[in-house]
């Protein structure tokens, strides 16, 4: 027997009301938890994918589209850039390293990324099986693709042109040139898990028929440089100063467009942020409503319990103890609501992650924690205690003799 | 056991109680008699230390009640005074056992389930330990209320109109319970009543006059 037992007994005695209050609070907390988990994981994931890439150069168009298409493999590319211009840019003194990307096709919705071994090295990939590509049309599968499509070593597959999964009528399939799997990557937790890596020349190879080239293995030699095209270039600066020079150089002296991953992802988050703020506001309204509901519940309980409180005083309870009892009850309601809300938030996030996974989007998991959740618990407890303040004060001021004399 | 001197109480300037002098021996049993509105309940509340009189001094078991700090008074009340209220007022959301444990807990005493069972047994309601108050008959609830008042072995046991609304048999039973329980823990018993039936049962009477 202690204050907790008494509080719990009172909460149990009003089970329906207690449940409603707990649920109301839990919904608010769950919504915020979901937002916290999803945004923190998305942000972390996006930062991880863009780490070490100072600038992306693509065809003229929206810088954000360039970033989305070439770093995150989410959007369609803005167009192609010429091989020769890319080579010129690679020699610029502000460029430390340049990774070429040639994006054209996909396999069942997963991007086929033509690049060089620098790309694999940049994301620190490890091979689970086989080796990296050495020739055009040799493919290395990201971990998720291997797991989801069931493609194994030495399997062959054909790419579909563009972003579509080759399932719609009219999707162009490159049937004459099939890829062969030569390696499978271990999971990296980055965008690489969801792409098929191959040589830049593969992209030219599948279109070799247009140039009347039969020997696709030697396509890089046979194709005239004027015909060679890339989609985007991932660039690492040679010095911090490059940030001031290179974007302007690219935009003014070439037909290409420079896009800063840091700037564009920040812009993206500020756009998404509006939606997140609206949801967060909504969740806070829910929590405030829960606080109000807890207040009403405790205030009514106080009226119902005025004799109990007076009797407790006759049994030796000090006014401070009755006050503590009411505050404890508010905190207990809030604590249960917060615990339930956090659990619910994590489960919802996990469900969302499963749904995202099916849509080949960025992975989100509910089995991760963020430090802000501690603040949420604090917020919930503060709301519960604040809602209990006035009832607690009224309990503190209970006039024992007056109450008992009336009843 | 207790000593009241020149105790007076007024509500909004209207005097409702006046006790010039009243001294009582430890273990004695008293009836406070008087018609409705004569201040019986007020006197009982003052004795219980839940009402501070407008004037006068009270000492109980050698302790000057009016001089105690509020927190000390709460503590003193919990440990030394047992009260049986007219409407009983058991805590409805707690079981009988927990109602009695609550009395020990709030008094700052060790929670002693054996003592609770002993008191319930002596009042013949030990089988109701896990029942909730709404599951009890009035007679059982009254026994539990008496049990709660005596579980901490008080020095002073107070009862407010314990026998109103009871038939003669139950009236005698209720009174017998208070008497025997007070004797069992050596407590002084003060019963405030306007019930003339129990007047004959106790020799010590303190009569309150209706205030003009």
Summarize the structure in words.
The complex is a heterodimer of chains A (407) and B (212). Chain A has 14 helices and twelve strands. Chain A has helices spanning 3-13, 15-50, 63-70, 83-90, 117-122, 143-149, 200-206, 219-222, 242-253, 261-304, 306-314, 319-358, 372-396, 400-406, and strands at 55-59, 81-82, 95-107, 110-115, 127-130, 138-141, 156-161, 173-185, 196-199, 229-230, 232-237, 256-259. In chain A, the strands form two sheets. Chain A has a six-stranded mixed β-barrel with strand order 3-4-9-6-8-7. In chain A, β3 and β4 (110-115) form a beta hairpin. In chain A, α11 (306-314) packs across α14. Chain A is elongated, with a radius of gyration of 31 Å. With 212 residues, chain B is α/β, with parallel strands linked by helices. In chain B, α3 runs parallel beside α5 (138-150) and α5 packs parallel to α6 (168-184). The two termini of chain B are 30 Å apart. The relative contact order of chain B is 0.21. At the A-B interface, α1, α11, α12 and α14 of A face α1, α2 and α3 of B.
Total E-strand runs of chain A? 12
Biggest β-sheet: strands ordered side by side in the sheet of chain A: 3-4-9-6-8-7
Radius of gyration of chain A: 31 Å
The number of helical segments of chain B is: 6
Mean pLDDT, all residues of chain B: 92
Task: Find the biggest chain interface.
Answer: A-B, 27 and 33 residues
Question: Can you tell me the overall shape of chain B?
Answer: globular
Oligomer: heterodimer
**What is the approximate shape of chain A?**
elongated
Tell me the strand order in the biggest sheet of chain B.
6-7-8-3-9
Number of domains of chain A: 2
Strand content of chain A: 15-25%
Output the CATH topology of chain B.
Rossmann fold
Give a short account of the largest sheet of chain A: 6 strands, mixed, barrel
Low-pLDDT stretches of chain B are none
Second-tier CATH architecture of chain B: 3-Layer(aba) Sandwich
Order of helices and strands of chain A: HHEHEHEEHEEHEEEHHEEHEHHHHH
Number of helices of chain A: 14
CATH superfamily of chain B: P-loop containing nucleotide triphosphate hydrolases
Helix/strand class of chain B = alpha/beta
Total count of domains of chain B: 1
